[in-house]
Give the backbone structure.
Amino acid sequence: MKDEGWGMKDEEEKRRDLKDRTREFALRVVRLYSALPRSSVAQVLGKQLLRSGTSVGAHWREGSRARSDAEFVSKVEGGLQELEESLYWMELLIGAGILKTDRAEGLNDDANELMAILISCVKEVKSRVEVKKATEDEKRKALL
């Protein structure tokens, strides 16, 4: 799905950057999970973080192969939900005293940065769709 507002090179670079960033985020989550204590509480909360944190990249990749703007927005918004959930599980791990705040700081920062980028992507596509719809409506009115 090509965003008409970008040049092809910019779009490809942005997609590749997000593909890399979401993969790195997932790998950091995997490493964090692997370092958690083996207590049942740590493992339950950790597995929740593992699921949500590793699925962000999958959502981005699905979205980048979307057949429509609506499908793109749906997939990317799914990734946003997973990022929000990842932050929640990290908060619980910290609140339960299982994870030290400084150990999660960089991962929290990455999650917030990814959220800002994905929100921007969704807003950009939604805005473009609205402009396109308004233009089509104006053309229809002109024909009447």
